[in-house]
Design brief:
heterodimer, A: mainly alpha, abc type-2 transporter like fold, 4-stranded mixed beta sheet, elongated, B: alpha/beta, Rossmann fold, 6-stranded mixed beta sheet, 4-stranded antiparallel beta sheet, 9 helices
């Protein structure tokens, strides 16, 4: 068994000798994700802040002055502007104003006679400013409706509560944290699998097909080391690097996401998106406690072993690096497809999925993050992947020990 | 002692025209022995079966029939022991470019179970013999083919093997480097190692080898001293032996 460690050691030393590969594999993700997420955060914050701080410019056609005073009572939110000449739609698109609100000239009369007043709004839903403006207008109209109904009820001598037969007092099981946890639980398996496979793929090709290409594989096989120990050593290297690369990428991503969600604007933005109220404690750490992280890492081990087996198997079978790379693309696409499939909403309710490799890992991680009871699914996913990794190790050891797999040119 | 007894090896290749599998008899019943302190020259044209024979002796391939013993170890049952007692130099000039010769020798010393201090001492001795001391700590990616060949030779001899297999050791080398390699082969002979050299360089064989075997179409011819072979074929150079074998399809 000493040979396995010696081969692993040799591969690791060789890896450290190439500074470029080391930088791109280990250091770049540490720098890249904070930069990337930082940029996203800045952009989102700026957009949200801009949308919030600026007034919504409204061109109002309201000859009976029903709405005007309500809008004017909120100078921080609204600014009344003249109706533009020409094409109003184009003017909105050109950012000359956010919306055109039109009320019938009979609006005041209609209101007095208890008829519904149509409020026609023209706005750009695609723009953040348009969305914010519409939300503000809805709030104003809601207030207008409430005030109008209450005054009508008072006139009739009835209780104002007549307009509110029910009133919701909601209490949430999970706030914005749960929404974030669900997002993480869905995204993480996909990112994790992609990193685990693609991160070690090139390194796997380098130590297999690459060694054959460079003519060094035969020198390694000509030593006194048992062939299976050489194969296992290389497998262990690919596995180890896959895990390290995944952890670095995910940690850097988590840190960057934490920073991104840490900013109030983004937090509020995300909370609005998720339909939750923004909370101060919203962070990655708040949704993934150490047990969840440990259990996720535990699932990565057999999965990483399975992937490294496949990479080594394809790498040794290939005549050269190019062929190995080409052979791995369909496999990578399969991994991507299965992990995307497992991201689909409601997929966890399909009964057979816990028995489909790779997909079951995704589901188990998702359940861990949203804190759903899924012990059985977790165990099935874990032991099934362990069994598959063991089977693949057996098959690849058998196949790769054949001289036909090693001497491709003969 | 290296003892090769009636070994056979076939390969299955795909015929591109007919798209059918074709069986090629690469080695057809080869037998010979190499004693300690003896240099055995294995000659033959390209594709004759020299490299396959050497790979079988090195335990990298298995003969379908016959047996090979290297200092008492059978290549089929004890291939790891065989490789541990054997220094193999392949035709591929494969060196790990990211390592320096010193690092490579240290790592291969570990692979062959050599103590680190011994590996360092012997490695430096070999690098000195091969005029590579000044390059001991230079990354090999910038090395010339001659320098790579020298490092490969040092790697093959690092664990002090009792048997040495050199597959075309002077191919692509300049005259000076080739001489260094030949001098090293002579030292190995003096050190009582069993040496097999596969080569195309016939003058080198006449000058260096104690006995010669010519592989032609997977069969071994000669298996005698260069002088005896020349007498056997009634010619004055090994080139002429080659031509005779080629003319008669290896059935002389």
């Amino acid at each position: 068994m000493k040979g396995i460690w010696l081969v692993l050691k040799k591969e690791l030393i060789e890896f450290t000798k190439d500074r470029k590969t080391m930088f791109f594999t280990l250091a770049l993700p540490v720098v890249l994700y904070p930069l990337l997420f930082g940029m996203i955060g800045k952009m989102v914050s700026r957009e949200v802040q801009q949308a919030r701080s600026s007034q919504t410019r409204i061109a109002l056609i309201d000859s009976s002055k029903v709405l005007e005073q309500f809008l004017q009572s909120r100078p921080d939110d609204f600014k009344l502007v003249p109706v533009p000449d020409g094409d109003v739609k184009q003017a909105i698109k050109d950012d000359q104003l956010e919306m055109l609100v039109t009320l019938e000239s009979s609006a005041f009369q209609d209101m007095a006679e208890h008829r519904t007043i149509p409020v026609n709004v023209l706005y750009n839903k695609v723009e953040k400013t348009g969305q914010v403006g519409m939300k503000r207008l809805e709030d104003v109209l809601q207030e207008l409706d409430k005030t109008t109904v209450q005054s009508r009820l008072l006139k009739l001598g009835a209780s104002t509560q007549l307009a509110m037969p029910t009133e919701i007092h909601s209490q949430q099981v999970g706030g914005a944290e749960l929404a974030l946890a669900k997002l993480l639980g869905t995204m993480l398996p996909y990112i994790l699998m992609l990193m685990l496979f693609t991160g070690s793929m090139q390194l796997g090709i380098y130590v297999t097909a690459g060694e054959r290409e460079r003519g060094t594989l035969i020198t390694l096989l000509a030593t006194g080391l048992p062939r299976h120990e050489i194969i296992w050593g290389k497998m262990l290297y690919v596995f180890f690097m896959g895990i390290i690369i995944s952890i670095i990428n995910i940690a850097s991503m988590a840190f960057s996401m934490g920073t991104l969600f840490g900013s109030m604007e983004t937090k509020a933005e995300y909370a609005a998106m998720a339909g939750q109220e923004a909370v101060q404690s919203m962070s990655i750490a708040s949704v993934a406690d150490p047990t969840i992280i440990a259990l996720t890492l535990l699932l990565m081990l057999p999965l990483g072993l399975m992937f490294s087996n496949l990479i080594i198997l394809l790498g040794i079978q290939a005549k050269n690096s190019q062929e190995a790379g080409t052979a791995m693309i369909p496999l990578m696409l399969l991994v991507v497809a299965l992990s995307i499939f497992s991201m689909m909403p409601g997929i966890e309710k399909v009964g057979l999925l816990p028995y489909i490799p790779i997909v079951n890992i995704s589901l188990a991680i998702r359940k861990l993050f949203v804190q759903q009871a899924g012990v059985l699914e977790y165990l099935i996913a874990f032991f099934m992947t362990v069994a598959m990794a063991a089977l693949l190790t057996y098959i690849s050891t058998k196949l790769l020990s054949r001289e036909s797999a090693i001497f491709k040119s003969t | 002692m290296i003892r090769v007894v009636d070994i056979h090896k076939t390969f299955t290749v795909k015929d591109k025209k007919t798209r059918k599998n074709k069986i090629i008899d690469a080695v057809k019943g080869i037998s010979f022995q190499v004693k300690p302190g003896e240099i055995y020259g294995l000659l033959g044209p390209n594709g004759a079966g020299k490299s396959t024979t050497l790979r079988m002796i090195a335990g990298l391939m298995e003969p379908q029939r016959g047996s090979i013993e290297v200092f008492g170890y059978d290549t089929k049952t004890s291939s790891e022991k065989v490789r541990g007692n054997l220094g193999f130099l392949s035709t591929d000039l494969g060196v790990y470019g990211r390592f320096s010769p010193r690092e490579l020798l240290r790592i291969f010393g570990e692979f062959q179970g050599v103590d680190a201090a011994v590996a360092e001492r012997r490695g430096m001795y070999l690098l000195d013999k091969l005029d590579l001391t000044s390059f001991a700590d230079v990354k090999m990616e910038s090395f010339s083919s001659g320098q790579k060949q020298k490092v490969s030779i040092a790697r093959a001899l690092l664990h002090d093997p009792r048997a040495v297999l050199f597959d075309e050791p002077t191919t692509g080398l300049d005259v000076l480097t080739a001489k260094t390699v030949l001098d090293l082969l002579k030292i190995m002979k003096e050190e009582e190692r069993a040496v097999i050299v596969s080569t195309h360089v016939l003058p080198m064989v006449e000058q260096l080898c104690d006995r010669v075997g010519i592989i032609f179409n997977g069969k071994l011819h000669g298996d005698a001293s260069p002088k005896e072979i020349l007498a056997q074929y009634g010619v004055t150079t090994l080139d002429e032996v080659f031509f005779k074998l080629a003319a008669d399809g290896g059935e002389v």
